[in-house]
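Quarterly update from the structural biology core.
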Amino acid sequence: MSMVPLDGIVVVALEQAVAAPFATRQLADLGARVIKVERVGGGDFARGYDQAIRGGLGSHFAWLNRSKESVALDLKQQEGRDILAKLVSNADVFVQNLAPGAAARLGFGQARLRASAPKLITVDISGYGELGPYRGKRAFDMLVQAEAGIISVTGTPQTQVKVGTPICDIAAGMYAFSGVLSALVRRARTGEGASLDVTMFDAAAEWMAHVMYTTLYAGAPPERSALSHPVVVPYGAFPTRDGGDVIIGVQTDPGWALLATKVLDRPELATHPRFATNQVRVANRADVDAAVVAATSRLDRADLVRRLDEVGIPNATVNDGHGLAAHPQLRDRDRWREVGSPVGPVRTILPPIGFADVAARMDPIPALGEHTGAVLAELGYDPAVITRLRATGVVE
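Predicted structure, tokenized:
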């Protein structure tokens, strides 16, 4: 068995919520040792976002924090800050997503850390960064979706909606993750560390770049089109006889001819002057969609999908959480695993990055402060001192 890619890399994460934990969990997935620093008396507040998993474990926390070690410190006390400083002195990477300026006020700003440890890779994740008029503005995922314009292009022509998963957090976490990997590669070549700055807003703006280009150069942003496509018809969700919707995406005129003749059993539509080309189908969208609905409504979902697949027309079933959990692609590719947690085994899926020669790392989700004692002992604290630190609330 080959070595896991990040074996030997130590990450100290002063993190909470989604963005930073998403980045560091992926580092842990690849074998890094991630020491998660949490607050005494509650820890990462994502622990309490919900109690979806039996015994009260939050679903966000379970998703983002497997394979980590939890150390609970009171950073308002000098001894707590001293412990964090010792942890960082032994680390390769330090990640934090406290409120802007908070880490620096505690003595853990990038400039200070890099001055004493030039090989250290530091990562600040925030909503808007340290500069600009929004530098101190609160930044939750939906708020950034709004500021970055994501909400403006999501929903129906009548109603804007947010994306249902925290994509701005996820985007920032992904860029932090890839940034750390890039910095590790550079450090291996040059010995030089790095100071990385990743914001949710910048990440979201990058993901909205095509909308900005359309707006700048076409004069107007694309219209919201719900589950339809603004310039391709038919492309959207269509009902079936047994109640499940199927998305059908026809992007070419030959594809339309196949749909009409082989799936809808309406060969006359393939060459009809109001339907034959995408340009006229867009102009007659309501009639095209009505013709497709009339045919799909007479078919069960499985039958419709089979017909579409047989002739190579792109399609997808409209699933919910239950449908995803039962998805045959996850089942037949053996994507499910169990990890330990404070409330017992939790089902989870393997990380998307898979190495053919390395088994995925799927270690337990930690309880708050579960590893405090062991990590302090590793740093050289004797049992009597650890007992005193617990009694005085410096650690948990």
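The chain has a mean pLDDT of 95.
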